[in-house]
Automatic annotation (TrEMBL):
It comes from Noviherbaspirillum saxi. Pfam families: OsmC (PF02566). This is OsmC family protein.
Length: 147
């Protein structure tokens, strides 16, 4: 895996990243650091990538467990060290999983497997951060019917 990060020039602190798969991600700094707030901060991208990594795992595990999963949101709340390097020190993941007749023990197992075995990002971040998680299940009992 590789990517190229390119500074967009001396008028600010905007960077464009081209990933190995050919996608582009913009990042920018805070105004007090010379940025113009045009895109997420690099550490926000790290946090978002971690959320994507674990949500992907949870959905995949639930599908393989024959669960009728129809939605998965994860909200991450983090704290960082006050001094450089300002690493993450705490990250809480709250999953909201929607589906039909989802079994709480299987949802909990999927989250645990992601954090302990499959999600490379959260496993790396737990080297500096206390990782916690919670979840809620929303049962989609009835399909919406169009009039």
């Amino acid at each position: 895996m590789e990517c190229t990060v390119r500074w967009m020039g001396p008028s600010g602190m905007t960077f464009l990243t081209e990933t190995g798969s050919g996608h582009v991600i913009a990042m920018d700094g805070a105004p007090e650091g010379g940025g113009r707030n045009l895109a997420p901060r690099p550490m926000e991208v790290v946090l978002a990538g971690t959320g994507g990594c674990t949500a992907y795992d949870v959905v995949l595990i639930l599908r393989k467990s024959q669960q009728d999963v129809r939605g998965c949101d994860v909200t991450l709340k983090s704290e960082r060290a006050e001094k450089d390097p300002k690493v993450f020190t705490k990250i809480h993941f709250h999953f909201t999983v929607r589906g039909r007749n989802l079994k709480p023990n299987i949802v909990e197992r999927a989250i645990k497997l992601s954090h302990e075995k499959y999600c490379s990002a959260s496993i790396m971040l737990e080297k500096t951060a206390e990782i916690t998680h919670s979840f809620e299940i929303i049962d989609d009992l009835v399909d919406a019917v169009a009039p």
